[in-house]
Structures are given as structure tokens and as C-alpha cells.
Design goal:
By secondary structure, the chain is an alpha+beta fold. The protein has 16 helices and 16 strands. Helix 6 packs across helix 12 and helix 7 (187-196) packs antiparallel against helix 12 (263-279). The radius of gyration is 28 Å and the shape is elongated.
């Protein structure tokens, strides 16, 4: 029999890991609720037509497609064989696959809004915490199954939404104790770059190449641009664009010189200045950094885009998002502007773990273990245990009456801080012994005082 294993790029989560992940989830959820967002959940799988063509060629290749059920039916065999040949040739065929696991939470959200826009109150603010799947190459911080935590606003063009989402990012990471940079750019500025370096039709080619800058470096980006039909002079313009550096003010000044004379360039710069003006008046102004190399290679972004980088650790982005004014138009519901952000929980977990930022209390599970020291004794222990539980104190009783040593080892391995023992003498005298394992101290108190004990 083969040894059991996991699919590549997936993981099991033990109790300590789940508690740490829940700490992240709960922190993010609480901030979402604080800013007036409401929860939403969508199915794990979507119709393939819902997903395909929404993420660009690179993204489409990473969508996990699901085989149609019933492929073993004799009536479908011939169709399935032909369909399989089509898929091998790079074509989609509904006779083989009509559904896919969701690639992100944004497109399913847009689909939901398109289907329910008549019943929703706009602006519609939702958050969503669910797993997504990508057929990517697994590596540190990159998995094939992972969670995203998204917050989106649909039905408003106001840049105040971008301001709010920026503050959500800053607030969450502040509560997690994680020092980050909130990097921003505007797709309008990238559109302006495309206009002056190849034409608007080269927008996708340029953004896809620029999006790889951190991974492959400037020279490789230039090589890729050349293969995409960008001339040497145009590549030099793009290189000048990618070389803009300095303070936020200096970057804006340089960008005005390069693209500020175009309509898109001027609009994009104004968006960034608006956002910085608001953020500078609050406690998180120093967290926001203009990064004109930021491209976010997804086709649906149209305005401000975000990416979050953790400081003092080598890790890819731990969050990202942006404005996507024409997203719901893909589903037949035009003129619904939107903007959203996403948290990469798995990467956030890895960063917090590496920097040892998880609070010690995150691992608190069972607080009190009642020893099982006999039938009558365990009955009294069970009664007292239930009283503690009604007070919100997490506790359990060892199921078998066995040696002290075995029960102590159980408590130690589970990091249970308190042990309560009721033996025959304590049962007779209506007392109980409380042992604090970390200190090796114990005290005897009346059973009637147990509920009031400071666990």
C-alpha cells in the first residue's frame, strides 16, 4: 500500500497552526466590520466561462479546471475523447470541462453582483474569507490552495473608497504588529506609458512584462518587451519610467515630466495625489509609498492599484488590489464601478512566524484539566467542569481513571496551564486541589470557590 500523501501545494493544519491562522482571520474580519463591510460567501467552483478571459493569458493558464461528472457514461465517451484532444491542443471544450475552482474572490464577487444587482443596496461593501486555487508552481509563500481575505466596494467612483481601503490595510497590519509598505500606482499612468511607448494596444504587453520586474530584473524585462514587439526607443522610455525613484513628492514630479502631458497620465497622478493628501493627515501616512513599477498584471484594473510588502523579511506581496470600473460589465451589468483589496493570509502567516510576531495567548486552548481519579470523583469533577464552562473557561476531563503520571503528561503535552484534582479525601471534605503546572505550585480550596478562582 502506498504511503498517504498530500497533493503538491496543499497542507494540513494542526491545532497550533489553526489557532494562529484564526488570529489573522479574526483580526482582518474585525477591521472589515469596523469599516462597515458585510460578509459574503460564494461556491468553491464557478462556471468556466465565468473565470476564463478575466485574468489575462498568464492567469488563465493557472485556473484549475474540473472534469465533467459522468465522463464514464458510455454515451459521453466519444465526445470526451474528442474534447480531450481539443484540450491538449490548448482549446477549452465544454464536453470535457464546464467548471473550474475559483482563481480569486474578485471575479466570483463580480458575478454575484451582476446576478443580484437589483436587490443590493449601493454602494455595496462586502468582505469575503475563503480558499482559492491556482495551478502554480509551489514554493515558499506560494501554494496551490490558499485563503484570500477580500474587501470590495461596488457602485461608487469616489476615491474616498481607496482612502478607506488603504486605512484598512494599515489598521490590520498595525494590529498584527507587522511593519509594511503600502505600495500604490495607477493603471492610468501605465496606460499613459503605453501611449508614449508603443501605443495603447501594447498596454497588456507592457504591464505583464513590468509585473515581472521583481522576479526577473530590468534586463530580462527589456528582453521580454523586445519579444513583444516594443522598439528599442520605446524600451528606453519604459526603462526611464522604471528608474523613477526618491520620495513620493520626487516621484510625482518626475512622473509629471514623463507622462503628465497625457490625459491618462494627468488623471492617474491626480488620483495618487488625492489619496496621499488624505492619508498624510492620519497616523499611517508614512506607510504609503508610490511605486511606479507596480503593474498588477490582471487585466481588469483601471485606476489605483495596491500591493503590500512586509519589511525586514524576504517574501512576495502579502496583499494587493485596485480599482476595476468595468468588471461587472463583463457579466452584462455595465456602469458599476468597483474597487477592492485582498490579504494573502498564508504569506502573512509565514511572515508573522518568521518574525515571531504571534502573541503567546494565541496558543491558549484548554485552560483547565480535571483529573479522573475514580467513578464518584469524576462525577463531581464533571459537575464542577460544567460550572466553569458556563463561565467561559475552557476545560476538559481526562476520560479514563489512570495513573497520575499519564494524566500529567497529557496536560503538559497540550500546554494546559491548570490541573484540578479531586480524590477521595477532597470528595469527602468538599475541597479540590489546583496545580499550576508552569510554576509547580498547588493550592487547596473549597469546591464552592472553584468558579471564582482566577484561572
Amino acid at each position: 500500500m502506498a504511503k498517504p500523501s498530500l497533493p503538491q501545494g496543499t497542507r494540513d493544519f494542526s491545532a497550533p497552526v489553526v489557532r494562529k491562522r484564526n488570529y489573522i482571520f479574526n483580526t482582518i474580519r474585525n477591521v472589515f466590520e469596523l469599516y462597515g463591510f458585510q460578509p459574503l460567501e460564494t461556491p468553491a467552483m464557478e462556471n468556466l466561462t465565468t473565470l476564463m478571459g478575466k485574468y489575462g493569458d498568464e492567469g488563465d493558464k493557472l485556473i484549475f479546471k474540473i472534469l465533467n461528472n459522468g465522463l464514464g457514461d458510455a454515451k459521453n465517451i466519444d465526445k470526451s475523447k474528442v474534447a480531450f484532444e481539443n484540450v491538449l491542443a490548448g482549446k477549452n471544450d465544454s464536453n470535457l470541462t464546464e467548471r473550474a475552482l475559483r482563481y480569486d474572490l474578485t471575479i466570483p464577487f463580480a458575478r454575484y453582483v451582476a446576478m443580484n444587482h437589483g436587490q443590493l443596496t449601493f454602494p455595496f461593501k462586502r468582505y469575503q474569507v475563503q480558499p482559492v486555487w491556482r495551478a502554480d508552481r509551489p514554493q515558499k509563500g506560494r501554494y496551490r490552495e490558499f485563503y484570500q481575505c477580500d474587501a470590495d466596494v461596488v457602485g461608487s467612483k469616489s476615491l474616498l473608497n481607496e482612502v478607506e481601503l488603504t486605512n484598512i490595510y494599515a489598521t490590520v497590519f498595525d494590529k498584527l504588529g507587522l511593519d509594511v509598505e503600502i505600495r500604490i500606482n495607477s493603471r492610468k499612468i501605465l496606460a499613459a506609458l503605453a501611449e508614449i511607448a508603443g501605443g495603447a494596444d501594447k498596454m497588456v504587453d507592457i504591464t505583464v512584462a513590468i509585473d515581472k520586474l521583481d522576479k526577473i530584473g530590468l534586463e530580462k524585462v527589456k528582453e521580454e518587451l523586445a519579444t513583444r514587439g516594443i522598439s528599442e526607443a520605446q524600451i528606453n522610455t519604459i526603462s526611464q519610467y522604471l528608474s523613477i525613484e526618491g520620495t513620493n513628492e520626487a516621484k510625482i514630479a518626475a512622473q509629471k515630466e514623463l507622462t503628465g502631458n497625457t490625459e491618462n497620465g494627468k488623471a492617474g497622478i491626480e488620483e495618487i495625489e488625492y489619496l496621499l493628501n488624505y492619508i498624510s493627515k492620519g497616523p499611517y501616512g508614512n506607510k504609503v509609498v508610490i511605486d511606479f513599477t507596480l503593474a498588477r498584471g490582471l487585466n481588469y484594473y483601471t485606476g489605483i492599484i495596491f500591493e503590500i510588502k512586509a519589511k525586514n523579511v524576504s517574501m512576495g506581496s502579502i496583499g494587493g488590489g485596485g480599482r476595476y470600473d468595468d468588471l461587472t460589465g463583463l457579466f452584462g451589468v455595465p456602469n458599476l464601478p468597483g474597487v477592492g483589496i485582498s490579504f494573502g493570509v498564508d504569506r502573512i502567516y509565514d511572515v508573522l512566524e518568521e518574525l515571531q510576531l504571534f502573541p503567546a495567548e494565541v496558543q491558549t486552548g484548554t485552560q483547565v484539566l480535571f483529573f479522573n481519579l475514580g467513578t464518584a470523583e469524576s462525577e463531581k469533577a464533571f459537575e464542577l467542569m460544567q460550572q466553569l464552562r458556563t463561565k467561559g473557561i475552557s476545560c476538559e476531563i481526562y476520560p479514563e481513571s489512570t495513573k497520575f503520571d499519564k494524566q500529567f503528561k497529557y496536560a503538559e503535552k497540550k500546554d494546559i496551564p491548570y490541573v484540578v484534582m479531586i480524590g477521595s479525601r477532597e470528595l469527602e471534605e468538599n475541597n479540590c486541589i489546583i496545580k499550576i503546572l508552569a510554576k509547580g505550585e498547588q493550592t487547596t480550596i473549597p469546591q464552592s470557590e472553584l468558579v471564582g478562582f482566577a484561572f
